[in-house]
Amino acid sequence: MTAVSVHDILIRPVISEKSVAQTERNNYTFAVGRDANKFQIKDAVEAEFKVTVLGVRVLWVKPKQKRRGRQTMGTVPGWRKAVVTIAAGQKIELFEAV
Fold it and tell me: Starting from the edge strand earliest in sequence, which strands make up the sheet with 79-86, in order?
């Protein structure tokens, strides 16, 4: 097996109205790699942000059709999302700046 880095697993945080509202309940949302499993996501969040992860939920965001002009159709690619629950009293500073 090849070694997978933290940056291959955690691509970016998802900053939306819903994900920022869920930070009050210690749920943080990340875009993750297509091949990453829950154990790798948990280890990557704990290593990167020095927090205790209690649970990980993973889902696929489906691709969408988008119109580009009058007749040209394009597709926004699908991606994978993980919602990570951390222990009470801890927080990830990356989301606090928003």
Answer: 10-13, 27-32, 79-86, 53-61
pLDDT in tens, 30-54: 999 999 999 999 999 999 999 999 9
Element of type H or E holding 46: helix 38-49
* Residues composing the chain: 98
What are the C-alpha distances in Å from 54 to residues 66, 75, 76? 37, 35, 32
Q: Which long-range CB contacts under 8 A does 74-78 form with residues at least 24 apart?
A: none
Given a cut of 60, whether residue 1 has pLDDT beyond it is no
Q: How far apart are CA 89 and CA 51, in angstroms?
A: 10
Phi, psi of 37 (to 5 degrees): -100, 175
Query: Are the CB atoms for 42 and 27 separated by under 8 Å?
Result: no
Q: Which domains does the chain show, CATH number per domain? A: 6-88 (3.30.70.330)
- How do 79-86 and 53-61 pair as beta strands? antiparallel
